[in-house]
Design goal:
five-stranded mixed β-sheet, PilM, ATPase_NBD
């Protein structure tokens, strides 16, 4: 209430605080947009090992421990008005791309999303929250593509109550995989000055042994690599390489003259050694090493790399 009252007096819209919640703690990230481009302003990590990490596990997630950790993290941000942008497990959000005639307004697309929910989801449409995003319109075509997103209403309600109990407004909910992708691209631009990337794109998170494959900016798939991320031997890296090729094929990619991917981003401990092997084996046309921890100045405070990337990606949303 105090933050809302301050916002009402000042008339300023709330700033976005990107957030990640897990059984290990809460991570918040705030960006500074004062010079027109985002840079890290604040990174807060509040460790707490007492709560569960799945948002659809209501008994574990909607707990006093989560609320307390979130409230403590927001208090550390200091004065100001903030709204929460939260990245949640991708399994809780269903994405579908449809093609529609050009000229439909937002209300008509919202009505179409109800039809798609009835056709594709095993729950009544009144138990589903939906949203949509128009893709760039081809002026020479009489159709356009729209990305629809669906999430169970009870998941959103649980998150909203959780935020309200911590005296925070929940403004945005999105897939964690999308936030990781966005954070990786921001990190690439900040470290290497590369504003554009090419798809298909791969992102290898060494600490979490996770591979994200992007056929496009929104067409993202995540795979768990069954290997020890702490091992950086030639043998271990070759095992990761073979797994990477397997998952590229599973994602529908084909091996070309320069590999399966146009670009591969490698992050985590041992990223330099991994990038060297992947460059030599031509798994991608270009391999770049990124280090989000270096930008955040959080090398030793315990925040998981996955959580830092999710919170950073969500913090890149401009407004509530």
């Amino acid at each position: 209430m105090r933050r809302a009252f301050t916002r009402w007096l000042s008339g300023d819209p709330p700033a976005i605080a990107g957030a990640w919640l897990d059984q290990s703690g809460v991570c918040l990230v705030v960006m500074d947009w004062s010079d027109g481009s985002p840079r890290l302003a604040q990174v807060i990590y509040e460790p707490d090992g007492q709560f569960a990490g799945r948002v659809n596990d209501e008994a574990g997630f909607n707990s006093a421990e989560v609320t307390n950790a979130l409230r403590c993290a927001f208090e550390k941000l200091g004065s100001g008005s903030f709204a929460l942008a939260l990245g949640i497990p991708s399994a809780d959000i269903f994405i579908k791309t449809i093609e529609i005639p050009t000229g439909l307004d937002d209300q008509q697309i919202a009505q179409l999303s109800v039809v798609e929910a009835v056709s594709n989801l095993p729950v009544p449409p009144e138990e589903v929250c939906s949203d949509f995003l128009r893709r760039s319109l081809d002026t020479q075509s009489n159709h356009e593509q729209v990305d629809l997103a669906f999430c169970r209403r009870d998941v959103i309600d649980t998150l909203r109550l959780l935020a309200e109990d911590a005296d925070i407004a929940l403004a945005v909910v999105d897939r964690d995989i999308q936030a990781i992708h966005d954070a990786a691209l921001w990190c690439l631009a900040a470290q290497h000055g590369l504003a554009n990337v090419q798809y298909p794109l791969g992102l290898l998170l060494g600490e979490d042994a996770r591979l994200v494959i992007g056929r496009g900016a929104l067409d993202l798939t995540s795979y768990e690599l069954h290997s020890d991320p702490g091992q950086h031997s030639e043998e271990a890296l070759r095992a990761i390489l073979e797994a990477l090729k397997l998952y590229c094929r599973r994602a529908g990619l084909t091996d070309g003259p320069h590999g399966y991917l146009k670009q591969l981003l490698v992050s985590g401990h041992g990223a330099a050694a991994a990038a060297e092997v992947f460059n030599r084996e031509m798994v991608a046309e270009r391999v770049d090493e990124i280090d989000l921890r270096l930008l955040a100045g959080m090398a030793g405070n315990g925040v998981p790399l996955n959580g830092l990337m999710v919170a950073t990606g969500m913090a890149l949303r401009r407004s509530a």
